[in-house]
């Protein structure tokens, strides 16, 4: 399916209450069916880019445009972005005490349905959906019946996020360091789950420091973000080269104008 899911042109963004510029001219096009990996040194703007796409009010867009499925993303509220199919996987998922996973997800699904003018999901259909999707990330019934992320280990929180992604079936998933803090087994479960959710009509952006995640979630394109700009893009082999050589060789060659 040859259509753009996301098209970013000349995106600049600052920390809203400080005026400090973090993104300094991001250009990025993500097409349906693609997986893009964004890598780069700490402080280069990777998490800021994810936050700006999600509508985090801590950041202010000062220039540029973001087109999401043919619509102006920057004019949408946070709620509309989610309803239209933008999903953000947090680096540090938050706990929501007192709200069960089932109630949380059923509310989220029905919000999406209401936005599309559809009827709420029935109880039987919802339970069937929960069972099917939980298998993708090996999430047991005990976890699904608990409050959202409350008392979960790091690996359980990340599996829970990919479970939410599976249930909501977003057009674009932006996963901010999903591999952070995961042991080998949890990494395999989470990353395999993400790979299984790839479809010809959706797209994924994976923000990561490590090649190990990309052994499971194979990217079509790898981008290096440095000093608020994408300075270099190449195929999946770039991630392995960065693992071996670091970023300095690219920064020396392409980072002067960043």
Task: Describe this protein's structure.
With 258 residues, this protein is α/β, with parallel strands linked by helices. It contains ten helices and twelve strands. It has helices at residues 46-54, 78-83, 101-115, 123-134, 141-144, 154-168, 184-196, 211-214, 237-245, 248-254; strands spanning 4-15, 21-31, 35-39, 59-68, 71-72, 86-89, 96-100, 147-148, 172-176, 203-207, 221-226, 229-234. The strands form three sheets. The protein has a six-stranded mixed sheet, with helices on both faces. A four-stranded antiparallel sheet has the order 2-1-4-5. It has a two-stranded antiparallel ribbon with strand order 7-8. Strand 1 and strand 2 (21-31) form a beta hairpin. Helix 6 runs parallel beside helix 7 (184-196). It is globular. 36% of the residues are buried. The model has no long low-confidence stretch (mean pLDDT 89).
């Amino acid at each position: 399916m040859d259509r753009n899911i996301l098209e970013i042109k000349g995106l600049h963004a600052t920390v809203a209450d400080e005026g400090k510029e973090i993104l300094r001219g991001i250009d990025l096009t993500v097409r349906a069916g693609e997986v893009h990996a964004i890598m780069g040194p700490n402080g280069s703007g990777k998490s800021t880019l994810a936050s700006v796409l999600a509508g985090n009010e801590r950041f202010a867009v000062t220039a540029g445009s973001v087109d999401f499925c043919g619509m102006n993303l920057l004019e949408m509220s946070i709620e509309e972005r989610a309803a239209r199919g933008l999903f953000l996987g947090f680096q540090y998922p938050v706990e929501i005490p007192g709200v069960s996973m089932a109630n949380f997800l059923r509310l989220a699904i029905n919000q999406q349905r209401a936005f599309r003018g559809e009827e709420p999901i029935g109880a039987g259909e919802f339970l069937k959906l929960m069972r099917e999707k939980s298998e993708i990330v090996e999430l047991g019934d005990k976890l699904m019946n608990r409050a959202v992320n409350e008392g979960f280990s790091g690996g359980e929180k990340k599996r829970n996020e990919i479970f939410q992604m599976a249930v909501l079936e977003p057009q674009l998933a932006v996963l901010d360091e999903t591999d952070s803090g995961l042991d080998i087994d949890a990494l395999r479960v989470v990353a395999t789950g993400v790979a299984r959710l790839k479809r010809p009509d959706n797209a994924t952006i994976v923000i990561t420091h490590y090649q190990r995640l990309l052994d499971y979630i194979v990217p079509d394109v790898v981008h290096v973000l440095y000093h608020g700009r994408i300075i270099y893009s190449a195929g999946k082999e770039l991630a392995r080269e960065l693992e071996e050589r670091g970023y300095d060789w690219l920064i020396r060659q392409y980072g002067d104008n960043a």
